Amino acid sequence: MAAAPIFKICSWLDREDYERLKDVAEYLGRRDGCSLFMLRSSVIRSPRLQNVLEMLESLGAIMEPQARKWLEQEAEMQATVRVGLSRQGFVLWSKMYLAELLSKYRGLGLVWYSRRERGFIVRPFAVVDVVEEIRSRGYNVEDTTGLLSANRTDFVFTGRLRPYQAEAVDAWKKNRYRGLVVLPTGAGKTVVALAAMAELRVPTLVVVYTKEQMYEWREKIKGFISTKMAVGLFYGEKKEIKPITIATYQSAYRNIEQLWDKFSLLIIDEAHHLPAERFRSIALHVMAPYRLGLTATPYREDGRHDELFSLMGGVVYVKTLEELKEYGYVARFEIIPRLVRLDREEYEKYRALKQRYNVLARGRSVQELVAASASGDETARKALQLLNEMRKLLALSRNKIEEAKAIVNEELARGSKIIVFTQYVQQAELLGKTLGAPVVTGKTDKLRRRIALELFKKGRYRVLVLTTVGDEGIDIPDANVGIVLSGTSSKRQFIQRLGRLLRPQPGKVAKLYYVAVRGSQEETAMKKILDRLHSLA
Fold first, then answer.
1. 332-340+397-533 CATH choice from 3.40.250.10, 3.80.10.10, 3.40.50.300, 3.50.50.60
2. Which has more pLDDT, 454 or 386?
3. Same fold, 156-326 and 332-340+397-533
4. Which of 132, 162, 183, 344 is the most exposed, fewest CB within 10 Å of its CB?
5. What pLDDT, in 10s, does the model give residues 250-291?
6. Any residues with CB less than 8 A from the CB of 102 and at least 6 apart, and which?
7. CATH second-level architecture of 79-143?
8. Beta strand spans in 105-227 (E)
């Protein structure tokens, strides 16, 4: 309609009503005992058009039916925000002025205007909050993506949640279906995620760290979810995209262009890996508005856990080992330190390396050396090389191998099932030969790895040697003894290794032996970690 609509009011107008009308319409005079007005074009283009129409109706305004219908359509369009997609994020389009409404989110860098899209771009992990804000102001939201709509699949959770698992799901729901659930390894984080999937019932992308975890997730889904929907595995040459799709971090990161717009729920397992430079792009570019992160150890020593919290919606639920141990949901455990000495040849070599290191390091911390090396400081680079040589010498100490053999023999006599954790492939292979045990490293091919893990689970092997590949997501419920020989320099890694042993079994008491070289940096690191973990044991 080209011309602004004209309406008349034939009833008496008091001064206050007349002033209200003049604010939205131009007075044209009187005709046949009625006052004529023309609605201002600025009002027609404003979000308050619906309120103006309601005011005119209350005053008995008379208008041509065609003009009224057009204005009602305009009012609905003015009060509607359409949500679409671009590769940058969700796009908001509206006839109303959105800049002021979105100012808070623009200030946080979560929303910005795109001339190319002629609308505002919203980061996918913030769109739920932005849409809620718009709706709370009384505006309609038209979702053209389909990603914000729930209850579109037939997932039904058939399991039974422990009380703390139900609390975790409730906390996640109250946070608008986003957030991190922090539970110790062995506490059933996967089951929490499956119950969350059944709450939303939307296409879901699950991102895991290893291929073994992919198969374990698929089996858990079969055991806890009733659905006719297929489960797809997305990795390597096999890239299936189904309503439930499970991908490795590497495959998801490398194939964002295939995954970015197909899922409403993003589940990140072992979520402490997400802030890594490559992997964070998964959370930035997969458009899933609903998110669930699972981890036993959310805090990172590099401080980048703050990014994890913002990408996934913050920490919504935490239960500690101590709390779960109290109620019998994880096995009771003890941490047993064992100190060994270097032999004479190893000691002399270690002392010489340490002297050279001290000269080059000049009292600088490892973090300072790393920063200096990155800036081109050659002495810092050489100091770090020496530090790595020292660590490797300590890790490969011959007396550590003997101590591990003694512990294994002692525990096998008790009927234990034992995992030996190492850092170096060389040490792992030597242990495998010494102990007559299978070895799983990052170099182990997929088939041999699966066979070794399966035979260990079934009890055909009673000892398994793992490098850091075993720090993530291997599920062996009846393993009850762990031996750490190298590689544990952080609380996070230590808790992950301990968690491998904590699946509850009747009468089970888990043991984690920590073997370190006496009088070395290993002993210092061990004491520091054990002091921080003292409350757990």
1. 3.40.50.300
2. 386
3. yes
4. 344
5. 999 999 999 999 999 999 998 888 888 889 899 999 999 999
6. 92, 111, 120, 130, 133
7. 3-Layer(aba) Sandwich (3.40)
8. 111-114, 119-122, 140-143, 156-157, 180-182, 204-208, 225-226
Contact 256, 280 (CB under 8 A): no
- Give Cβ neighbours of residue 75 (< 8 Å, ≥ 6 apart): 49, 50, 53
pTM over 0.85: no
- Single-letter amino acid code for the residue at 117: E
Q: What is the mean pLDDT of the chain?
A: 85
Taking phi over 0 as left and psi of -120 to 50 as alpha, with beta for the rest, 487 belongs to left
Q: For residue 419, which of 460, 470, 469 has the smallest C-alpha distance?
A: 470
Residue tagged 């109620």 (tokens): 327
Q: Which three-class secondary structure state does DSSP give residue 237?
A: coil
* AA identity, residue 442: G
Instruction: Let me know how long the chain is.
Output: 537
Q: How far apart are CA 452 and CA 454, in angstroms?
A: 6
CA distance 352 to 121: 59
User: Closest by alpha carbon to 169, among 151, 201, 192?
Assistant: 192
Q: Which helix (H) or strand (E) holds 263?
A: none
